[in-house]
Amino acid sequence: MKVIIIMYIIFLSSSVYALTLNECIDKAINTHPNIKNATLDVSMSEASIKIAKADYLPQVTLNGEYNPTRTYIFPANGTFNTKDSDGWSVGGVVNQKIWDFSKTISNIEAQRVSKDAQNLTLEDAKALLAYRVKLQYELILVQTQAIKVREKDLKVKEELYKQAQAFVNNGMKTIADSTRFLSAVYQAKDNLAIAKAGFEKARVTLSLYINEPIPADVIFQNTLKNHTLYEMDEKRVLNNSLTLKSLQKNIKKESLNYKAAKASHYGSLDGVASYTHQYTLNEYDSTLVGLTLKIPLYSGGRTTQQVQQAMINRKKIEATYDSKKLEIREEFESLGIDIKRYAQTIKAKESEIEASKQTQELLEARYKEGLSTYIEVLDAYAITLDAKLSLLQAIYERSSAIHRIEYLQGKII
Fold this sequence. Notes:
By secondary structure, the chain is α+β, with helices and mostly antiparallel strands. It is built from nine helices and six strands.
C-alpha cells in the first residue's frame, strides 16, 4: 500500500509542467524565424567567399561552332575566288588570372570580413530575442502576483460589503456604506479581470516566441527576486556590444571594397591557353599559349564612380557607428539612473506597505466602532493595494532595465 501511495505521489509531481527561463530562451532561439533568417545570411556570406575565390581559379570554357553554309575566299593570281561550303570547329580555352593588383585578394578578404559581421549580427539577433523572452517571462511572473493581490483585494472588499450589510440591517450604518462597498467589489472584480487578461496576453506572447503552447497550470521560475546586476561599466558595454562590433567589421569590409575598386583602374594580367580543332575546307588543329594584359582606358566613368561609391559607403558606416555608439552610451546612462531609482522605489514601497497595513487595520477597527467612515477605510485599502502593485511594477521595471544592459553587452543567458 505504501509503495502505491509513493508511486502516486511521484506520478503527480512528475505531471507538473515546469518551464524555466533558460528553456524558453533555448526554444525561442531554435525556432524563431528571425534567427533562421540571420543564419541564412551567414550561409550566404559563406557562398560569397567561394564566389570571390573563384576569380583566382582557372576558368575553363568549351567552344563549339557549326556553319551549314559559309563563303570561303581564295586569292589567286591577283583575283579572289569563292566557294560555299559548310564548316565546324570545337575547342577549349583556359584562362588563369595571374595578377590584378590585389583586386581579387581584397574582394576575398572583404567577403570574409562580411561573414564575421553576419555572425555577429546573428549573435545580436539571439541576444535581442533572449531579451524579449525575458521580458515576457517576467511579465507573466508579475501578472501572476498581481492576480493574487487583486484576488485578495476582492475578497477583502466582499467581506467589507458583508459587514456593511450587517451593520445596515442592524441600523448601525447607512445604506450609503453598503452601496459604496458594493461598488468597490465590482471595481475589484473588473481589476482582477484586467490582471488575468494581462497574464493571458503575456502567456500567449511567450508561447509564440517559443513556438509551443504553454498550459495554464505551468510553473514558472521566479527570476525577479534573485536577479542582480554585477557590472555597470560603460566601457565594458561598448567593448562587448555586438552591434558595434558588427559595424566595425562592416567598416573594414568597405575599406577592402574601396581598395578593390581602386585596383580596377590597373586591369589584370592573365595566362591564356587554348586548343581548337577546325574543319573549314581543310581540317587542322590550332593551339595558343600566352599572356594577356588588360588595362581599362575608358569605361564611361564607371570605375571612378565605383571607387567613389565605395568611399562613401565606408564613411556612411563610420557615421552609423559613431551614431550607434552615442545611442548606446545614452541608453546605458539612462538605464543606470533608472536602476538606482527603482531600487529606491522598491524600498519606499516596501515601507509604505507595512505602514499602510497598520493604518488599514486601525481604520477598520475604528469603522466597526463607528469612529471612522467607509471612505477612510476604502482609502486605506486603496493605498495598500496601490503600494503592492507599484512594488511589483518597480521590481519588473528594474529587472527589465538590467536585462536591457545585458543585451547591450551581447549576453544571451
